[in-house]
Amino acid sequence: MGSSGAAHGSASVSGPARSTEVTTQGRLEADLASLRAGLRTKGYRLTPQRQLVLEAVGQLGHATPEQVLAVVQRKAVGVNVSTVYRTLSLLEELGVVRHTHLGHGPSTFSLAAEQEHVHLVCRDCAGVQELPAELVGDLAVRLAQQQGFVVDIGHTALFGRCATCSPAAANPAPARHAGLR
Q1: Residue 77 to residues 53, 80, 81, 93: CA-CA distances in angstroms?
Q2: Residues near 20 by Cβ (< 8 Å), separated by ≥ 6?
Q3: Beta strand 117-122 with 128-132: parallel, antiparallel or unpaired?
Q4: What pTM value is reported for the model?
Q5: Which of 113, 94, 9 is closest to 50 using CA atoms?
Q6: What is the pLDDT of residues 93-138, one digit of tens each?
Q7: How do the domains of the chain map onto residue ranges?
Q8: Rounded distance, CA 161 to CA 97, Å?
Q9: With contact defined as beta carbons under 8 Å apart, do 37 and 96 qualify?
Q10: CATH code for the structural domain at 117-170
Q11: How far is it, in rounded angstroms, from Cα 106 to Cα 59?
């Protein structure tokens, strides 16, 4: 998936994307139920603003708070950016969303129920690709065994150059690091 964050999760209604849309809707409904329960146990309630923020994250896939705000304000003009930040923080505390740093800008947020994946971020074109977490499974195991370090795959972003931007893409050589052999 070689898109740049904001388009992830938005699916059309035709062809294979239809199943993606249905899957996202199912995850969103499960997340709303989980959110209601989590909020109740902490003495909160599911406000329309909180629901709109969660729906926007589900719709966008990976989104910055400002992107979430733009979607929310289409339905509720009075919601401001501080409400979005507070809501995203609460949703993350409840385990409904998670954040990832994909560069020097603001964090992006996605539904926690999504399959864990690794982000490949191109330093030249800023493109982002999502790959299954299993691709870095061996590295995670080696880090745990050799360093006692447990990798949080859901927050993983690897930076480099994509195939389009890298002159070495035709002949990639494996990277070596002194501590990992």
Answers
A1: 13, 8, 11, 26
A2: 11
A3: antiparallel
A4: 0.64
A5: 94
A6: 888 888 888 777 788 898 886 677 788 888 888 888 888 888 888 8
A7: 17-111, 117-170
A8: 28
A9: no
A10: 3.30.1490.190
A11: 19
CATH topology assigned to domain 17-111: Arc Repressor Mutant, subunit A (1.10.10)
Backbone angles phi, psi at 43, to 5 degrees: 85, 15
Please name the residue ranges forming H helices in the chain. 17-41, 48-60, 65-72, 81-93, 137-147
pLDDT of residue 21: 46
Q: In this predicted model, which residue has the larger pLDDT, 135 or 2?
A: 135
Please give the Cα distance from 159 to 121 (Å, whole number).
5
> What's the CA gap between 57 and 63, in Å, rounded?
6
Band of residue 13 on the pLDDT scale cut at 50, 70, 90: very low
Q: Is residue 5 pLDDT above 80, yes or no?
A: no
